[in-house]
Design a protein that fits this description.
Helix 7 links the parallel strand 6 and strand 7. Strands 1, 3, 4, 5, 6, 7 and 8 form a seven-stranded mixed β-sheet that branches. A two-stranded antiparallel sheet has the order 2-9. Helix content is about 40%, strand content about 20%. It has about 270 residues and is an alpha+beta fold. The longest helix is centred in the last third of the chain and has 20 residues. The protein has a domain of about 150 residues: Lambda Exonuclease, Chain A. The structure holds iron/sulfur cluster (SF4). Iron/sulfur cluster (SF4) binds next to helix 2 and helix 9.
């Protein structure tokens, strides 16, 4: 079996949702504009580092969704997101704080690891390069609100960065956050991941998660306290409530589990 960070985080968020997605084959319909925007924008970043016309790449990619039936947040439109994307690309180029040497080899870098039980863990690092002159692994994020920066060190607890540090052995990590707000902004956030954190993450993967998955333990566990209860925003709510209307609105079903499920990692 091949596992990815997306699978592990889904199991930790709620084991029942993992079962719906990876065993029963239910997938969330793509109705959120932000996810498609993020994919298009990351492809444009790739073009930027390959010294291609990143604005044209973004226009072409995002143009494919011009007539898509997305749910836009209040005040958002396809046009508005197009302008935000172009503005963010221009700001990123002006800032000039990120370097990727050999972009063909150091963007979407595949890392894998064989686990104790023989399963494989696969991750795709968005980039390996330098932020403000510091060599590090890099994750791009597109979002509508700023990432919290305080207290100092908060980012070193980010589980996705810890995962990527664990699988790559790279200690220094950075999040480059593209914030789609009224005046678009870019955050360049760095963290150092310790050896102890990497070892703990390895145990979390193998002992707490994969052992439980392979033992068939998929109890619902959504978090409890309103409004943090994960059920409120869970795409699988219709299945848990046996509400056919909600299921039809949010999900599509493909046939069972697939050895290629780890490819979800590429859009996370
Ligand atoms: S609705 Fe709640 S219990 Fe059901 S899968 Fe989602 S998070 Fe888990």
């Amino acid at each position: 079996m091949v596992y990815s960070y997306t699978q592990i985080s889904q199991y930790l968020r709620c084991p029942r949702s993992y079962r719906y997605r990876y065993l029963d084959g239910w997938q969330e319909k793509e109705t959120r504009s932000g996810m498609a925007f993020g994919r298009c924008f990351e492809n444009a970043l790739g073009a930027y580092f390959r010294e291609e016309d990143c604005g044209a790449t973004f226009f072409k990619e995002w143009g494919a969704y011009r007539d898509a039936a997305f749910e836009y947040k209040k005040g958002e439109t396809w046009d508005r997101l197009l302008h935000q994307g172009i503005h963010l690309l221009e700001t990123f180029a002006r800032d000039n704080r990120v370097r990727i040497h050999d972009p063909h080899g150091n963007l979407q870098v595949k890392k894998h690891r064989i686990l104790a039980g023989g399963s494989e863990f696969v991750a795709y690092l968005d980039a390996i390069g330098e932020v403000d002159g510091v060599p590090c692994l890099i994750d791009w994020k597109t979002t509508t609100s700023r990432y919290p920066e305080a207290p100092e060190g908060l980012l070193s607890l980010d589980p996705q960065l810890i995962c990527y540090s664990w699988i790559s052995g790279i200690l220094e990590a950075a999040l480059v956050v593209f914030v789609r707000k009224h005046a678009p902004e870019i955050q360049y956030l760095r963290a150092t991941i310790s050896e102890e954190q990497r070892q703990e993450f390895g145990r979390l993967v193998e002992e707490t998660t994969i052992n439980q998955i392979e033992a068939g333990h998929f109890n619902p566990h959504s978090g409890i306290r309103f409004p943090q209860n994960g059920c409120v925003t869970c795409p699988y709510l219709g299945l848990c409530l046996r509400n056919d209307h909600l299921v039809a609105a949010n999900l599509v079903r493909k046939a069972g589990a697939s050895n290629l499920d780890w490819l979800d990692e590429l859009v996370d």
